[in-house]
Amino acid sequence: MTETEIAxxxxxxxGDPLASTSISHVKSLSSxxxxxxxxxxxxxxARHPESPLEPLFRALYIAHPSFNVxxxxxxxxxxxxxxxxxxxxxxxxxxxxxxxxxxVEVTKDTAIFCRSETAxxxxxxxxxxxxxxxxxxxxxxxEIVDNxxxxxxxxxxxxxxxxxxxxxxxxxxxxxxxxxxGEASSLPKPxxxxxxxxxxxxxxxxxxxxxxxxxxxxxDSILEIKTRTERRLISLAEVIPQMxxxxxxxxxxxxxxxxxxxxxxxxxxxxxxxxxxxxHHANIRKLITLIKDILxxxxxxxxxxxxxxxxxxxxxxxCKNDTKKKLLPDDLYARFEKEQALSA
Length: 344
Fold this sequence. Notes:
globular, seven-stranded mixed sheet, about 350 residues
């Protein structure tokens, strides 16, 4: 089906001078693990392509049954924020700029950004190398959830007059007080207010299964792991934009010589993130303006659109999305409508 272009959005020259550029009111809401299983059991987009955002809402409502999504302005993956950051300032992204696509739905005053990838997984050939990051994590972290494949957290925070609900993938947490450079562990999902059933379907019309397991992990113990050859050091400038968007306070920079790693340290970079935030307030204002511009265009055009970065035009192109495909299962939309009626 041919898409109809409805608008193009240029990189903002300036941002709202009154917009707050500091992330505040950070709150950890929930987390979950993807499980290696033939049936999608809190599974990633490659295993659950029909609704990549469904696990976010299932985990959120398990931990907070009375949560009202209409108290939030934007629900998004941190990855989408990073892509928009790289559009605002190319130095925040990769050296080679790549096109990206974000599906957008707006219901009343709440928007959902869903990442749309051309490939949910990549096949690595027998003679190809993609680094040692995953093997390092296996060796230096302890798995808490059986057969866990990856781990995601859901947080909320305020930025530029908006309340964001953000999901991001994380590498692990520090066992014990966050200030101790102790043993790192892979992240489990929380147990607070969990149903008594240990294994059950998310909904009678959903293929997603849920397994209750794990423990509550505080936000100040979460960490990001970066690995690289010792001949090429990892600068904070490379990683802070990502860690700012997810509010991850701890960093592990691990270096290897042909796969042999030296013992890494855990760095708490909370203060460095705050310094970076102050130094980049002008670009953060542009990011806030860009997000609000996207929401405004989509609201004015039926509340459903696809936003693409066109490398050749160096602009975001907004196309009307007339497909019947929905980002979420029907029961979640029904819940949103009920929450909207109660808050009216």
